TrEMBL record, chain B:
It comes from Methanobrevibacter thaueri. Heterotetramer of one alpha, one beta, one delta and one gamma chain. SUPFAM superfamilies: 4Fe-4S ferredoxins. NCBIfam families: PorD_Arch, PorD_KorD. This is Pyruvate synthase subunit PorD. InterPro entries: 4Fe4S_Fe-S-bd, 4Fe4S_Fe_S_CS, PorD_KorD, Pyruvate_synthase_PorD. It holds the Pfam family Fer4. One of its GO terms (molecular function) is oxidoreductase activity, acting on the aldehyde or oxo group of donors, iron-sulfur protein as acceptor. Residues 25-50, 51-80 form the 4Fe-4S ferredoxin-type domain. Keywords: 4Fe-4S, Electron transport, Iron, Iron-sulfur, Metal-binding, Pyruvate, Repeat, Transport. Its cofactor is [4Fe-4S] cluster.
Length: 289, 83
């Protein structure tokens, strides 16, 4: 069971779409981290919807700087706290997939390399949502976005998703995990472990987005669940270099069950769906799912 | 003191913004049949269901996640009526 706190640290009244998975992501993370936390966020839906000036949904100290440097800013916050002897404060940075796997990769890599005692959570909705659903390096193969549109000349995104958690693992940091908002117990455990880790910790969180993916708002959690149950998103952690799957679907569902309800995949024909299925099968085999 | 950049010194003041006005469907929760699984509380994107399972309609946007994720069908979504 996940503990329900008396006070939510992400206040209502924020401007996230009805059914927004990013707000669930942050709410659950802050529940796990508690009040003694400083949060940093890159530009993106999360920052825009939670801080419409002069309002903020954050009940804890929060700093937004730019799209590309949440890793650098969190490094600075962590260093400043450490020099003041405040070793017990959690520093958490949130970045969207664009802010993490594309434009923020360099500053994040530096932060990880320098060994800052911080947790970085990439909330991955698989495109640049805040600016109108443009593709990112984390957009999956076949997905239609405004910059990888499906149509006569294109079937949508033509490259597989960048494997960001493994790029982080290659930094040799003590904690890397994947998670999903649809598995809150698994996710909250990972956030707690990340916070307890001395040194950098990275969590790559799968976050369905009703507006960008095109499914009804009540099915946000269902989409996250289908991604995991089909093996399209695999839940694991790598602690001090040791890889372990943290959740195994009882029986892996066909990937079509995950793709079919989403508008971004609706154009895919059987051949492309088969290609995606083979890709997912290979990935599952490689990771031992 | 001069602030560099935008500083907001009132934590959680998005509460000024009553997002309940966005709603077209309203969740009605039946406490009798509720089995206390906490799914609705955990998954509400707008933190508007409390530990006692009361829904704060000032902020509920009517997304329907709580009803969809309720294992005992204790939450029904009904269409809002204009007054
Ligand atoms: C240097 C720079 N380039 C472009 C932008 C415009 N911009 C703001 S948010 C955003 C997309 C964010 O995408 P992502 O990080 O995936 O977060 P999401 O909105 O999907 O949550 C872009 C392109 C910017 N703010 N700064
Ligand atoms: S576009 Fe997606 S991530 Fe952005 S606020 Fe809406 S549901 Fe949330
Ligand atoms: S309908 Fe959505 S916003 Fe309203 S209480 Fe249920 S989960 Fe929360
Ligand atoms: S999801 Fe349903 S059963 Fe679970 S706590 Fe909410 S109302 Fe009760
Ligand atoms: Mg994104």
């Amino acid at each position: 069971m996940v503990d329900i706190p008396d006070k939510n640290l992400l206040a209502p009244g924020h401007r996230g779409c009805a059914g927004c998975g990013a707000s669930i992501a942050v709410k659950l993370a802050l529940n796990a981290l508690g009040e003694n936390t400083v949060a940093v966020s890159a530009t993106g839906c999360l920052e825009v919807m939670t801080t419409p000036y002069p309002e903020t949904a954050w009940e804890i100290p929060f700093i937004h700087v730019a799209f590309e440097n949440s890793g650098a800013v969190a490094s600075g916050v962590e260093s400043a706290l450490r020099i003041q002897g405040k070793d017990d404060v959690n520093v958490v940075a949130f970045g969207g997939d664009g802010g993490t796997v594309d434009i923020g990769l360099q500053s994040l890599s530096g932060a990880m390399e320098r060994g800052h005692n911080m947790t970085y959570i990439c909330y991955d909705n698989e495109a640049y949502m805040n600016t109108g659903i443009q593709r990112s390096g984390a957009t999956p193969f076949g997905a239609s976005t405004t910059t990888s549109p499906s149509g006569v000349a294109s079937f949508g995104e033509d490259k597989p998703k960048k494997n960001m958690p493994m790029i982080m693992a290659a930094h040799g940091i003590p904690y890397v995990a994947t998670a999903s908002i649809a598995y809150p117990e698994d996710y909250v455990n990972k956030v707690k472990k990340a916070a307890e880790t001395k040194g950098p910790a990275y969590i790559h969180l799968h976050q369905p987005c009703t507006t960008g993916w095109g499914f009804p708002s009540e099915r946000t959690i269902e989409m996250g669940r289908l991604a995991v149950e089909t093996g399209s998103w695999i839940l694991y952690e790598i602690v001090d270099g040791k890889f372990e799957i943290t959740y195994r679907p009882e029986e892996r569902k066909p990937v079509k069950e995950y793709l079919a309800p989403q508008k971004r995949f609706r154009h895919l024909d059987d051949e492309l769906i088969e290609k995606i299925q083979k890709y997912v099968d290979a990935e599952c085999k490689e990771l031992g799912l | 003191m001069v602030n560099i950049g935008c500083v907001i010194k009132t934590p959680g003041n998005t509460k000024n913004n009553k997002t309940g006005s966005w709603r077209t469907f309203k969740p009605i929760l039946d406490k009798e049949s509720c089995i206390d699984c906490d799914n609705c509380i955990l998954f509400c994107p707008d933190s508007c269901i409390n530990k006692q399972h009361d829904i704060d309609y000032d902020y509920c946007k009517g997304c329907g996640i709580c009803a969809y994720e309720c294992p005992s069908d204790s939450i029904e979504m009904i269409q809002e009526e204009s007054d």
